[in-house]
Design goal:
This protein is mainly α and 248 residues long. The protein has a single domain, classed as Hypothetical protein af1432 (Orthogonal Bundle), CATH 1.10.3210. It contains ten helices and two strands. Helix 3 packs across helix 7 and helix 7 packs parallel to helix 10. The radius of gyration is 23 Å and the shape is globular. The structure holds fe (ii) ion (2 copies). One fe (ii) ion binds next to loops. The site of one fe (ii) ion (FE2) has 4 residues, from loops.
């Protein structure tokens, strides 16, 4: 029989070799989304003998949302373990352009949580809250605020990641995979998208989330305004008249 002291030591040792949950979440997401991105693009780059997708939209979007979670949680006293874990996994089984199947990606992701976290140091008692947040993250509009605060934060961070500078990169890099793209197409779609962004900003659950959404919305408006100026209005040629030159 193993003496209780040795058993306790063994248990402690087993706990100490548990995989850090962030490492597991990131690795699981990376593996699934890289494979899906390669399927979506039907082409891959070879990097050091490994197939790498042209652009892994899902992973980049998730990383943006995780960064936002780390920023938002301390401001609203939300549990960062729950919010960050839910953000890492909220789209973990979502495929790009998969018209054959119904979109059940929130429920699909929630169903995977326990298995992905198995053998990690993630607190078992927080798993239900992670699943709740994942199951309620979908949609671009809210008619009433979400609760608890962790579920509210996950919604806000997921949506904030669709606004702002990084979102322009992410959408710009993926959109050519869905259809041929021109600068004019992007401008034509921008008005409808900005309308939707206003709806997203108005739906924010948290005050810091709302303030950040307003800042990002203002940036997006300025960006598309500038794009329109460059693309549709001919720029004035620099003046050769010394009287019109800027004062030195
Ligand atoms: Fe999602
Ligand atoms: Fe998402």
């Amino acid at each position: 029989m193993i003496p209780p002291k040795a058993r306790a030591k063994g248990k402690k040792l087993k706990e100490s070799v548990r995989v850090p949950w962030r490492t597991r979440c990131e690795a699981d997401l990376r593996a699934f989304t890289d494979a899906d991105a390669i399927r979506f693009w039907s082409i891959a780059h070879q990097v050091d003998g490994e197939a790498r997708p042209i652009f892994n939209y899902r992973f980049e979007h998730t990383l943006a949302a995780v960064k936002l979670g780390r920023w938002l949680c301390p401001q609203v006293n939300a549990d960062l373990d729950i919010v960050e874990c839910a953000l890492w996994l909220h789209d973990c089984r979502k495929k790009l352009k998969d018209p054959l199947t119904k979109d059940t990606h929130a429920l699909d992701a929630s169903a995977e949580v326990s298995e992905i976290l198995q053998g990690t140091d993630f607190p078992q008692a927080k798993i239900a809250a992670v699943r709740h947040a994942i199951e309620h993250h979908v949609g671009l509009k809210l008619t009433k605020k979400l609760s608890p605060i962790e579920t509210a934060c996950v919604w806000d961070c997921d949506k904030l990641s669709k606004l702002g500078a990084a979102s322009l990169i992410h959408f710009g890099c993926i959109s050519g995979g869905f259809q041929p793209i021109t600068t004019e197409d992007i401008l034509l779609r921008s008005e409808a998208w900005l309308e939707l962004c206003r709806v997203i900003a108005a739906s924010m659950n948290t005050l810091p989330g709302k303030a950040e959404a307003e800042r990002r919305l203002a940036f997006l408006c300025a960006h598309y305004q500038q794009l329109g100026n460059e693309w549709r209005e001919p720029l004035e040629a620099p003046s050769t008249n010394p009287l019109k030159s800027p004062v030195r």
